[in-house]
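Entry type: protein chain
Record version: 2
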Amino acid sequence: NAQARTTVQHTGSKGSIVTDSRQVRLATGIFPVISLLNHSCSPNTSVSFISTVATIRASQRIGKGQEILHCYGPHKSRMGVAERQQKLRSQYFFDCTCPACQTEAHRMAAGPRWKAFCCNSCRAPMQGDGVLRCGNRSCAESVVSRDHLVSRLQDLQQQVGVAQKLLRDGELERAVQLLSGCQRDAESFLWAEHAMVGEIADGLARACAALG
């Protein structure tokens, strides 16, 4: 199992207060000891690199006799269980049965948590396909169509795009005002771990940091 050596690359003009960043691959290397570790989508270790030296550190408490686990790439914080399983099958030829995959398999009705809609009344995730219902059986919230919520999400994405342009142009106060409105809107129909909720929070944090 080869290991990807990556770094964080910052983008944006040098004169801009706000910059973006992304992870890029520098090289791929073979580390015999790391290659002995089995995969978990929620591993108990992390790997860091200094030049050509790889260091494995515990990311949580590891008990005596507990297996040391490493993530081969598909991590539960970045992908849903179906996408992780597909990638692991195609590249490593096995079906993952780690606790994260087993737990998420039971939640498939609600979809990936970073794409899920939530109930406007009780904040529980909405479930279903074309017609969504609150996953909380004790909630009396009426059903809502997925198309309606998708349309709201698309409108929200457009507003966030406008706010991000304001950030890049240095119009920080206008960006904060617009993103604050987007945040209130998102909280009314998006699950707390939805990717758009995180994107809005990130934009607000960058704008507020730049404003001081």
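Comment: The helical segments are 81-92, 99-105, 146-168, 172-187, 195-211.
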